[in-house]
Amino acid sequence: MLEKIKEAPIKSFLYYVSFCLLIFSLVTANPIATVKGLGPILLSSSTLITDYMGISSMSSAFLNAAIVSFFTLFLFHIAKIQYNGTSIASFFLMAGFSLFGKNFLNIIPVFLGVYVYALVNKDSFRKYIYAALFGTSIAPIVSEVIIHFSGRGITLQSIIVGTIIGGVCGFLLPALSVECLRVLQGFNLYNIGFATGLIGIFFTAAFKSFGFGTEIRMIWTTGRSPILCVFLYALFLSFILFGYLLNDKSFQNYPIIFRHSGRAVADFTVMDGFPLTLINMGVVSTFALSYLIVLNGDVNGPTIGALFTVAGFGAMGKHLKNMCAPMFGVFFMSMLAHWSLKDPSVQLAALFCTGLAPITGQYGFGWGIVAGAMHSLIVLSVTTFHGGLNLYNNGFAAGLVVMLLIPTIESFMKDN
Amino acid sequence: MKHNKKKMLIILEELMKLFMKLGATNIAVNFDMEEEQCTIRIKGNYEGKSARYFQEIAKCLNCGRNEEVEECYWSISGSSEINQDSELYIVGSMLDQCTLNFSETELEIVGYRKL
After folding, report:
1. ipTM score of the complex?
2. Which residues are registered as beta bridge partners of B37?
3. For residue A2, what pLDDT is reported?
4. Fewer beta carbons within 10 angstroms: which end of chain A, N or C?
5. Omega before A310 cis (within 30°)?
């Protein structure tokens, strides 16, 4: 048996990121005001797009992200998971989406639902931990029901109903995500977004039939705070620095990561080691941040969430060679379509479309551009299907792209 | 354990795909299901691969049993004609142990999975 990956550096790294988020939240504003600012985050709707920096403040949004990050690490600890690329990706998704939609209360019912699923199937919760973590993309449904169900604000009745509905979503996730994964064949890195999109569609339709509507929002802070940009650059560049130091103070062999198509499950920590993975995470996230800034995008909760997603999947599928093509596809489509790269949803699409990186890795740059272009068209229309309840809207759209595109590509491929 | 037989078939299918990718024309399979463990033994000929290539495969197949990755991703394997390191990593996460023995013309893979 070959030596297993060393887990301690990965664990330490995740704690480092959590502490960075916490320290940033406490030093950028009065800590008492920061803690008080959690109230609006926990008590407001969280459907797409709800920038917690706009609902409350930058420091409070980061404090929420830090709390959710530490909670994720706590779950890893009690479940005794093996630290690898999947744990890194799930951690970064939890941290990133805690800036716009997930908070430390609305994720709980989803976890409870998955836990009940494990109990019913006489399995350990640990087996379904990634379904639970990724599946918290449906957490806004909990907030929405708790706040709006009774029509009189938050009541005991609405809390119970919201918890049950969140639990039902969590219960459905493990089995549904497995089937969705089979359909998408690993070409969509945000597989669970497709499953939670389907759940969101069902509940949106059900709510409408019972006279309860969900609200798609656009709470979006604009601009690029210098302190935030400096923090993000410092954070992402530190990934490269730590990777360099762990790699015997060198960038040697980094290009071997580019040989992977990125198709799930491309766990770079297993295949190429954690040092090179860390360098890759820093490179892709720094690139994505630079792209956002050069194109005059906004650095806010949702876009930082997208950057964290890019960083997280830099451990599990994404690298510069396979993620640029979909981004270029979005850029190309912006020159033809009646929307611009500055539009909020398009800014997110340009970053999240990198979930289709495996298409480039498998079939080439050209098909990657097509995938990105298709993604940019689809993602702007599908939010209404699930009522904004599915935070991984781009994951859902990417799933549709895969279902449309892969059979077509395969039909052109020669039989090997 | 849920879907155990399905998972064993998927492991078998992915390993068979690997041999076909290596150009095997003669593959022998032995599948031994005991009460607590299942053993899959596949032997076949191959063409033109180096020791380094088999080390890469061994790395994926020996990543170690990982139930949380297995439960999340097992359904991807066996779903396409493509056989890559990502599929082999999923297979590796479903195996407790895997040994690779190869000569100039022949490869044998033995995988063990506790039930």
Report:
1. 0.87
2. B114
3. 40
4. C
5. no
pLDDT confidence of residue B113: 94
Per-residue pLDDT tens over the stretch A362-411: 999 999 999 999 999 999 999 989 999 999 999 999 999 999 999 999 99
Give me the residue from B59, B62, B69 closest to A86, CB to CB: B69
Which helix (H) or strand (E) segment is B86 a member of? Answer: helix B85-94
Report whether pLDDT(B80) > 70: no
Residues in chain A whose Cβ is within 8 Å of chain B: 1-2, 4-5, 79, 81-82, 84, 86, 121, 123-124, 126-131, 174, 177-179, 181-182, 185-186, 260-261, 263-267, 270-271, 362, 416
Q: Between vectors from CA B71 to CA B70 and to CA B72, what angle results, nearest 5°?
A: 95
Provide the 3-class DSSP secondary structure of residue B31.
Answer: strand
Q: What is the chain A residue with the closest CA to B91?
A: A265
User: Which residue from A257, A232, A243, A252 is spatially nearest to A357, judged by alpha carbons?
Assistant: A257
Tokens 């590509």 locate to A409
| Boundaries of every domain in chain A | 7-209, 237-415
Q: Quick check: B35 contacting A, CB < 8 Å?
A: no
Q: Please provide the distance, in angstroms rounded to a whole number, between the alpha carbons at the two ends of chain B.
A: 7
- Percent of chain A whose pLDDT exceeds 70: 98
Instruction: Give chain A's length.
Output: 416
- Put simply, whether B72 touches A (Cβ < 8 Å) is yes
Q: What is the dihedral of CA A378, A381, A385, A391, to 10 degrees?
A: 80
Q: Which class is B2-114 in CATH?
A: alpha beta
Structure tokens at A212: 């309860």
Question: Where do the H-state alpha helices sit in A210-313?
Answer: 226-246, 268-271, 274-294, 301-313
Distance (Å) from the C-alpha of residue B76 to the closest C-alpha of chain A? Answer: 5
Tens of pLDDT, residues B22-44: 899 999 999 998 889 999 999 99
Tokens at A190, concatenated = 């945000």
Cross-chain CB nearest to A2 (options B59, B85, B89): B59
Is the model's pLDDT at B78 over the cut of 90? no
- pLDDT top residue among A155 and A212: A155
| Residue B66 with chain A: CB contacts under 8 Å | 82, 84
Spatial contact of A348 and A176, defined as CB atoms under 8 Å apart: no
Q: Which amino acid is at B42?
A: I
CA distances from A277 to A115, A280, B73 (A): 31, 5, 20
For chain B, the domains span 2-114
